Amino acid sequence: MHSKIKYSISSALLISAIFTSSDSYAWGQNGHRVVGKIAESHLTQVTKRAITPFLDGESLAQISTWPDEMRSAPGDFWQKKSSRWHYINAAPGKSFSFKHEHTKNKESVSNILEGIHYSMQTLTDANSTLDAKQFSLRFLVHLVGDSHQPFHAGRGEDRGGNRIKVSFFNEETNLHSLWDTKLVENENLSFTEYAQFIDTNNSELIAQYLQSSPKTWVEESHNLAMKIYKYTNDEVGYSYIYNNTPIVKTRLQQAGIRLAGVLNALFDPSAKELETALKMPIK
């Protein structure tokens, strides 16, 4: 990793997270692809060239869903350990935490922050294999998206809204699924159309989004989730869509911009204006 990234994640985070099993899939396929598509439009040419070997002929949008698609794959990692990468929970009044020693190998990662750190560390390690870097890029793209879905930083006791049943136009679902899939699919847009509609070139807004870190992203998601828990009723319909679709669009837009910022910070030493997207050094 180039020397411009100077901040420490371990000093910024407190050890206080609690983890429970999760059935969650953030944003569904379309949502993740929207994030990848937006990010693609904000990569520098240097970054595009640098990540080409790790894409294996695919786009960021295409690889964005891979970690969810692999959850049914055989093997101890996919069956018992990979689900922990996708979310984080914190006890009331506690900060989201990160253990640096958990990022030394993929088997020990225990939450989304550690997964993001492991992925970035592997991508910038000259000793990492091509397979390891392809794995890490796929996860990084996916996890940046996950970190912006409110219920991937929700309450452990209800598995991030998975155990809260709601009715969406008389269709039985749960709060997590409502947010990761239903509200996105309700727009009736392809992921390319959705990305085109919500993408931005507003430099001030982009700069605002990039003044952040992965810890910021999960804190934002947690705060949103706590509000959503309070005002979601058993039945949701048009007014709920009206009030919450703007939140969904903003989170997808932020995730795409921030993903590009992270990749530019990792791979393009000249991307000075994008450095602040990443306050997590890899040593």
TrEMBL record:
<dbReference type="GO" id="GO:0016788">
    <property type="term" value="F:hydrolase activity, acting on ester bonds"/>
</dbReference>
<dbReference type="GO" id="GO:0004519">
    <property type="term" value="F:endonuclease activity"/>
</dbReference>
<keyword id="KW-1015">Disulfide bond</keyword>
<keyword id="KW-0255">Endonuclease</keyword>
<dbReference type="InterPro" id="IPR003154">
    <property type="entry name" value="S1/P1nuclease"/>
</dbReference>
<keyword id="KW-0325">Glycoprotein</keyword>
<dbReference type="GO" id="GO:0006308">
    <property type="term" value="P:DNA catabolic process"/>
</dbReference>
<keyword id="KW-0540">Nuclease</keyword>
<keyword id="KW-0479">Metal-binding</keyword>
<dbReference type="GO" id="GO:0003676">
    <property type="term" value="F:nucleic acid binding"/>
</dbReference>
<protein>
    <submittedName>
        <fullName>S1/P1 Nuclease</fullName>
    </submittedName>
</protein>
<dbReference type="InterPro" id="IPR008947">
    <property type="entry name" value="PLipase_C/P1_nuclease_dom_sf"/>
</dbReference>
<dbReference type="Pfam" id="PF02265">
    <property type="entry name" value="S1-P1_nuclease"/>
</dbReference>
<dbReference type="GO" id="GO:0046872">
    <property type="term" value="F:metal ion binding"/>
</dbReference>
<keyword id="KW-0732">Signal</keyword>
<keyword id="KW-0378">Hydrolase</keyword>
<feature type="signal peptide">
    <location>
        <begin position="1"/>
        <end position="26"/>
    </location>
</feature>
